[in-house]
Each structure stands twice: as structure tokens, then as C-alpha cells.
Amino acid sequence: MARNDQDSHKLLVERVFQLYGEISRLESLKPSTNVDTLFSELVNLCKQPSNIDVRYLSNEEQEIRSHLIRLCAEAEGLLEKHFSARLGRQPFPLHHLGAFPYYNNYLKLARLEFETLRDAGVVAPKRVAFLGSGPLPLTSIVLAVHHLPSARFDNYDSDPTANAMARLLVAPHPEVAKRMVFHDVEVEKVTAELRQYDVVFLAALVGIEKADKERVLKHLRQHMAPGAALLLRSAQGARAFLYPVVEAEELPGFHVLSVVHPKNEVINSVILARKRFNDPE
Questions:
Q1: What's the pLDDT tens digit per position in 111-158?
Q2: What gap in Å lies between CA 156 and CA 141, rounded to an integer?
């Protein structure tokens, strides 16, 4: 590694961990001026171009990164609940999605994922599952409204409150609501149903720890239909301080079709794979 890279990586890690220290001392991660400022600074720092490989962090640094991702996940969930409740008070919530501060990111991510599917020949899927949809299911909504106008979306989340909030968002919009179903169930309890989907989306924060992600991926390998597409999210470079990393070679039973690492404000990398027809398991 070049000396300049070593120096830049050291400075990056020091600043990320400094922000981690400030975030971990907060009494609450609910949206507030202080919370929003710290996480905005963290996101802006981590989305800058960097070739750092988090696999080479020390064990202590890996522990801090893991805890930081869990804090990010908690804060993201609280932010989504806050805005879902706020939007749910509008007569037509989907007309006001721009109030969510990261809505433009979701627009770009959904377009990227749609184009990745299309370029791989996955065109006009009829049944789509989103695992880990949460209280503000923006990916499903954006895809349903802008890219897949005839697909049915089954959204799965283990939190009944999150699903209830999500239902309120789409209910006043019958053209979307009739194609949008929400299921209160943990991902690993969805079994036979998985065989009916042409495409399965796996949210980045389903399986934060590596062992948990591997267990979820093994479950999908066992229950998805042969030939079905799996679209999952990962992270590269400094963005891996915000989200878990999945490598293409960590998908036994799937044929990887595409790996995309955005360089813009879209944080997540995208991996598209197809369930093998001859998987020996």
C-alpha cells in the first residue's frame, strides 16, 4: 500500500472513530439537531472516495466498526419511524415523500437496482419480495410507482408496528395499495412463500453481523425458486463503516450476475445474483 494511502486511511479511521465516540455518548438516537448533525457528518465523510478495505482493520477496530453499524441501524430505524408518522398524517402521504431527507438517495438507488435487473434480463417481474421493509418502505414504493407498475410487492418485516405505519402510507393511494402487501414475520420464518417470487430484495441491515447475514443467505438459498433473482446490498470502501459488507464469493448456490459500486451519494453497493438450478446444497 502506498504511503499516501496509509496516511489517508489512518486519518479516515481516526475521524470515523471520533464521530463514533460522540454518537455512542448520545442519550438518544431519535432525530434531533445534534443526532442529525453527527450522522450527516458521518455519512458525508464515508461517502467520499476511498480505497480502504475494512477487512484489514485490527480486531479492536472491527469491534468498533460493528458497533457503529448497529448504532447507524438504530438511528436509521428511528429516523424512518419519525418520518413515517409525520407523512402518515398527510391526506396523501406519497405526495410528500420528498420531506424525507434521504429520499433522493432512494430514488437513485431504486433506479440503479431497476437498471441492474433490466440489464441482466430480469424484465417486468410479476412477484417481488422485499425482506426488511421497515416503517418507510421507500424502495418498494419507488419501484412500484416509477419502474415496475404491474408488479405485486410483498414486504416482510418482523416489527408489526413498522408494518402498520407502512400500510398507512400507501392506503390512501389505491393504485399502489392494491399491489403492496405487508407481512409481520421474521425473514427466516418465510419459507415456502419464497418460491413464488421472481425477485427477492434483501435490505442491507437484515443480518448486521457476518454470521447472521450468512444464515439469512443460506435460508434464501434453501427456499428461493431456482432461476429467481436475489438483489442484495453491500458497501465498499469507507461506506463499509455504515453498512455490512457482502462479497460476491459469499453467495454459494447463486450465480452472481452483477456487482455495482456507486460513486455518487448512493451509499450501498448492489449485488445481483440468480439462484442456481443445479444447486446441490
A1: 999 999 999 999 999 999 999 999 999 999 999 999 999 999 999 999
A2: 14
How many other CB atoms are found less than 10 A from the CB of residue 276? 16
Cell numbers 447463486 label which residue?
Answer: 254
Number of helices followed by number of strands (H, E) in the chain: 8, 7
pTM of the model: 0.94
Please report, for residues 30, 89, 151, 169, 170, the alpha-carbon distance to residue 95 in angstroms, rounded to integers and kept in the order given: 24, 12, 21, 10, 11
Strand runs labelled E in the chain:
127-131, 152-157, 180-184, 199-202, 229-234, 254-260, 269-275
Can you spell out the DSSP letters for 2-32?
-HHHHHHHHHHHHHHHHHHHHHHT-S--SS-
Rounded CA separation 105/267 (Å): 8
Tell me the CA end-to-end span of the chain in Å, nearest whole number. 39
Measured between alpha carbons, how far is 135 from 168 in angstroms, rounded to an integer? 10
Q: What is the mean pLDDT of each run of 10 residues along the chain (281 residues)?
A: 73 97 97 97 95 94 97 98 98 98 96 97 96 98 97 97 98 97 96 97 95 96 97 97 95 96 94 87 56
C-alpha to C-alpha distance for 171 and 177, rounded to whole angstroms:
6
- Give the ranges where 173-268 is alpha helix by DSSP (H): 174-177, 210-223
